[in-house]
Design brief:
Layout lengths: L1 H17 L17 H19 L4 H19 L10 H28 L1
Helix pairs in contact: 1-2, 2-3, 2-4, 3-4
Protein name: VanZ-like domain-containing protein
Organism: Mesorhizobium mediterraneum
Keywords: Membrane, Transmembrane, Transmembrane helix
Amino acid sequence: MARIVFLVTLTGVLLLALLPVRFLPDLGMAVTFHDDKLNHAIAFVVLAALGSLGWPEHKTRLIVLLALTGAAIEVLQGAQLIGRDMDVLDWVADCAGMACGLTIAGWTKRRVGGLT
């Protein structure tokens, strides 16, 4: 189940991150906090936690995939076609979110493992 939710969430994050800002309100997707770094961190907390729960045996691959995904988002946001700004600190927020998400997944695994 975590794998399916991860893939759906990843699709949503990519959609929100790569659509030009002017289209988001028209699609009813202007869900945002006023702090862009917080948006990035929360997205990657969720992705890392779900990915870690879905593919526990591939944590290194997950980290590399999410780090590259965050970097690619920033490069693409810097493209004039999308009309967003590239910011390396957004990628730092992605990585910080990843660390938190992996920690949360680890706690969850230990708690659930301790209950069985």
